[in-house]
Amino acid sequence: MLDRFIIEFDTGLRTLFAEAHTGRPYPDNAIKETLSEKKDKSRSISLMRVNHSGEVCAQALYSGQSLTADNPETAEALKEAAKEETEHLAWCEKRIKELGGRTSLLNPILYAGSFSLGAIAGALGDKWNLGFLAETEHQVEKHLEKHLSLLPEHDDKSRAIVTQMQHDEAAHAETAIEHGGAELPRPIKSAMQLFSKLMTTTTYHL
Fold this sequence. Notes:
Blueprint lengths: L1 H16 L20 H31 L3 H27 L8 H17 L2 H25 L5 H23 L7 H20 L1
């Protein structure tokens, strides 16, 4: 357990303070920059900053869940999902920098809170652990769908990134359900939605 904690602690440090890397090509590689207006850039920066913070939270959740998961297969499924979330981090970071923006100042706080939630979910057993993962991904998928409608209409680069992220999140949710994830009680879902709303509202500005 100590070794696992050290590994997850290292994951947290790298998530928050190191540059993320991707094994897949950036989804927007072949797309030319089309944003020139300051107001459009500002909106895209804010939305992509929210998406980046969402991926920071996802990394923390998976890390906490992996730490306390009993079943090695469950832990492995969480680690595989986390790899793609790391790629999402890299994609969002690159896009934010291209537009001249910055990531959220609140990421360390969000990581700590999400890690704790993940560890609690993992300790409750595999079916609830995976159910928590599935519900998280369902909510993120809806959140990304909303962002596709909020991005400037001609921001094709950000749109390509968000679209691929949405596809990946749907696959993560499906994998969690296939591994035996249980549907969460409605009060838990509502609490998760409240946390998500708080995160997106604050990181849009900070």
